[in-house]
Amino acid sequence: MLNFFEPNRIFAITSKAPKYVFFIFILVLIIGLVEALVISPEDYIQSHSVRIMYVHVPAAWISIGIFSIISILSFGILLLKIKNFSLVAKSLAPSGLVFNIIALVTGSIWGKPTWGTWWAWDARITSMLILLLFYLIYILAWRIFENTNQVNKITSFIAILGLINVPIIKFSVDWWSTLHQPASINLLSETSIHSSMLIPLSIMTAAFTLFALLIFLMKYNTELIKIKNKGLDRL
Amino acid sequence: MYGKKVKLRAIFLLFSIVIVILAVFLVLKTLEEDVVYFISPTEIKNLPEINTKKIRIGGMVKKDSIKTTSDQINFIITDFKSEINVSFSGSVPNLFAEEKGVVAEGFLKDRNYFDATKILAKHDENYMPPEVKESLQAK
Predict the structure, then answer these.
(1) For residue range A19-39, what is the model confidence (pLDDT) as tens digits?
(2) Do B130 and A41 touch (CB under 8 A)?
């Protein structure tokens, strides 16, 4: 188990992985874009602006998902002091931030023709903005503090506090009246998105997940190289 | 299995999380009026008093209620229990239609009349191609 956390062993795998992930990402992205922009039908009421959803929804899902993973890893960092987890969490943050911004911007572009406004201070949109602030403060904290022990503690604490915001984002549309529509895809009840629109949505989600994985691997490799160059820190 | 320090850290984390959740919950509870984006016509009916603050009312546009004159558009917002008359001058979003969700921002004149300064269309959670919608309506 300890051997597996040897930086050289991990690096042997993660340094080769990006080119394969990149190849699969391009492949899935092309299929996804063709499905989303050409094959899938227009909506009965929004017509073509429904296509924005195929970027908006996967981006929002992934940004929330990545933050949840960072928070869960942070428990391991704070409680058990697993050093490798801090590298993983640190490397996950940038792609989460990017997808959070994409979700907010595409939502805004969709909101103007559909709702008639670029922005509304409703519970869903505001809680997504708070998630963005958590991402920013998390990434900033990694840059500000230099002492390894201190930076691990502070960033993990930020991520764990931010985890409280995650269920608020998810259930904001059920708890309060919002301009944002409630969830269309439910695990327990029937989904209210037609299957012809569910296909591009799933493929685009897969493509974005691969992209997040790619950015993560590249960032993670950089972190490993930094540690190898220092030569002192063992994971 | 884990040392005493790990247990202490776990307790510290648990308590911090509980405290923050409680704080967030209390803040959201107190601010409930501001967290909700709009209120329903029924809630307007039950208001103890009408103040001049800008508010938002949400619900469905009642069937056959939209009446357009040269400079004004009038319609009724309903939540299927209560209704309120809305008048608005300006352009409405493309998705504004009868039997669709709407959010009107503006000022209450009384419990039955609302002067809107902005109209937003609310989209529901249903996504489907036009053909599917037609076959659904045929049923």
Answers:
(1) 999 999 999 999 999 999 999
(2) yes
